[in-house]
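call fold target=Methylmalonyl-CoA epimerase
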Amino acid sequence: MNRIEHIGIAVNSIEVAGDVYAKLLNTGVYKIEEVISEGVKTAFLQSGPNKIELLEATNADSPIAKFIAKKGEGIHHIAFDVTDIKAEMERLKAEGFILLNEEPKPGADNKLVCFVHPKSANGVLVELCQEVQ
């Protein structure tokens, strides 16, 4: 793993939360996009090398809607940049981690992604991200 790519925060409204984080980080949202397959709208902010991804559910069955219903708004996941997502997935499986995806899938911000089950990472949802070439 190369570095922390971003921290994902589940929110009720990326508009409202975007304003809060824009003030907090003294920078604006630079990208908003929808990941239809996940039922989520995302907004990204960057401060120096650090990125925050705000996640708003687009339907009641989405993982973000379920997360907010159970835990409320807050930190949803931590994402790590990887050079070779398939190799990293194999390495983690060999180490005994439970992956939520068998294959990398398209994610936001031009990334291939895979999630590591929180049960195998001390209660933290971990996302692997590889830049799509």
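return ok
Helices lie at 14-25, 63-71, 85-94. The longest strand covers residues 3-11.
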